[in-house]
Amino acid sequence: MIRNFASNSCFLLIGTFLLYVSPGCHFYSPNDRVDSLFTILEGVQYFYDLNRPSETHLMPNKLEEISGISYVAPNHLICVEDETGHVYHYDLKLRDLVSEWKFSGSGDYEDILYYLDSVFVLESDGDVFQFHYSEAGAKEATKYENPLSIKNDTEGLGFDPDSESLLITCKEKRDLDGEKTEGWNVYSFELATKSMKRDPFYLLTSKKLKTFFEEYRDFKYDEERIEVKPSAIALNPLDNNFYILASVGKMIVVIDQRKNIKATYSIPAKLLEQPEGITFSPAGDMWISSEGVDGPGRILSFKPETR
């Protein structure tokens, strides 16, 4: 499949099975074509072409297992990796780490959030660490425990400015008591009270996704792809929609403030093999991080486009 002819020309030499693609043309494999069935963007004003990142950043060895990222300032992100209890400051212009903090011992750390000079880190059992963002070095972090547990397998940490709450996504279909649910819960942790709301902020289900797909697709598709497992969540300040990233299922689900699904993206595995972190700048630039699979971890940036 060839698209985006623009001002350049593409020549398919069928006799010799040679495909020439000029610099302005793009070739998409059959797998890309199938994945495109799950990219539905009609409901949003701003969108991203996940096949064309504006920048690709290969991470140093310390961040081979990068599990979360958060925007701090122009050209600056903070990152966390799975195991060591370190947070790293990455300079997008320098393409290098400029500082790091030790906030805890070994553990299973899944995501990170910067808010009002504080750094929050999520552990897979739902516990949240907080420390003050300042000079690099060892940090004394405050640990907040809550009713979530390893049964929930918490992976994503976002922020809801309306309630000033952390948003925590669960990779497993469990409620606060560990009982099975019909979908994947997003819970709200209020910063003012440092307590978890029992009622989910949002429940993502296969049924909701199936209904959304069938509204836009009138042909058969692989329903097994609907089994997404959320790994990150972030608010896009351009339209105030929440982006739920799923590494398992290779998908982004966009929901609005009324908790309606507005768009879905299929994530190209060739670019993001294990995507587990997402964050936005105030201008709507989007970054997605991916753990390394037989190679370095990476961060890809995407510019917003409008209709």
Q: What features would you describe in this structure?
A:
The chain has 307 residues and is mainly β. The protein contains two helices and 28 strands. The strands form eight sheets. Strands 7-8-9-10-14 form a five-stranded mixed beta sheet, with no helix packed on it. Strands 16, 17, 18, 19 and 20 form a five-stranded antiparallel beta sheet that branches. Strands 6-27-26-25 form a four-stranded antiparallel beta sheet, with no helix packed on it. The chain is globular. The two termini are 23 Å apart.
Q: Into which percent range does the helicity of residues fall?
A: under 10%
For the record, give the distance between the C-alpha atoms at the N and C termini, rounded to a whole number. 23 Å
The overall strand count is 28
What is the tally of helical segments? 2
What does the largest sheet look like?
5 strands, mixed
Low-confidence sequence ranges: 1-34
Q: Calculate the mean pLDDT score and round it.
A: 87
Radius of gyration from CA coordinates? 20 Å
Following the backbone from N to C, one meets helices and strands in this order, namely: EEEEHEEEEEEEEEEEEEEEEHEEEEEEEE
Shape: globular
Strand content: 35-45%
What topology, given as strand order, has the largest sheet?
Answer: 7-8-9-10-14
Question: What would you call the structural class?
Answer: mainly beta
Question: Could you outline the blueprint of secondary structure elements for this entry?
Answer:
Elements: E1 2-3, E2 11-13, E3 18-20, E4 26-27, H1 30-35, E5 46-47, E6 55-58, E7 66-73, E8 76-81, E9 86-91, E10 96-102, E11 109-115, E12 118-123, E13 128-132, E14 137-138, E15 142-144, E16 154-160, E17 165-170, E18 183-190, E19 195-196, E20 202-205, H2 206-216, E21 229-236, E22 241-248, E23 251-255, E24 261-266, E25 275-280, E26 286-290, E27 298-302, E28 305-306
Parallel strand pairs: 10-14
Antiparallel strand pairs: 1-4, 2-3, 5-28, 6-27, 7-8, 8-9, 9-10, 11-12, 12-13, 13-15, 16-17, 17-18, 18-19, 18-20, 21-22, 22-23, 23-24, 25-26, 26-27
